[in-house]
């Protein structure tokens, strides 16, 4: 059985990658609709499916389809509200949500099946499983720092993935990331506090995504680095999530840990 997919942000870098993957696997997926800004709709003509700037129009023409959304926090929330009204399943890969926006997303998940992950990569989500154990084994004498590198067009910093990695490591230490995080160092800052996790952002070029976690002790350093070679890795993860979410019931904000 195929999974019907509605691509939100269909002209974006991630949206275009997802659309191409869906069309390349007709035995698994059906392109059921595209959502994009009005000024981009002409470029999507001839897609062979409903195309609109209004997601409710597309949802009405595609009952049972799963929305896949890599747009922006405000747009993703609008789509979540529409999904909550219609009952459509929604996979979100958008990052940069505020605490209040994330709370609203969690509320919408009680009305429709909604899946959100800051990173759809299998490798990154395996790291989220093993990093807390490593932090526990090394102990608090090892300082933790995270550096993330992305292309120059990325709008949010630090990346959602870096913050998620930081959250899992802070929890392993019994800290809250909002208290322990340091994302800026400049001038005479004094000695590094022990209860601190540095999360730094680097931007430039066309880098799909690199995240490095450092454990730094006396006389040695451990580096764990994840390289995303292309956006296709994230797109395949999103479609895997769409397959998994299809037919699920509302009741919680699902994530990659639910798939594993």
What does it look like?
There is one protein chain. The chain has 260 residues and is an alpha/beta fold. The protein folds into 2 domains: 3-120 and 232-259, Rossmann fold (3-Layer(aba) Sandwich), CATH 3.40.50; 122-228, 2-Layer Sandwich (Dihydrodipicolinate Reductase, domain 2). It has 9 helices and 12 strands. The protein has helices spanning 13-24, 55-61, 73-86, 99-108, 122-138, 160-173, 177-180, 232-245, 256-259, and strands at residues 3-8, 29-35, 51-52, 66-69, 89-92, 114-116, 143-150, 181-182, 197-203, 209-217, 220-228, 253-254. The strands form 2 sheets. Strands 3-2-1-4-5-6-12 form a 7-stranded parallel β-sheet, sandwiched between helices. Strands 8-9-7-10-11 form a 5-stranded mixed β-sheet. The chain is elongated and about 60 Å long. The mean pLDDT is 95.
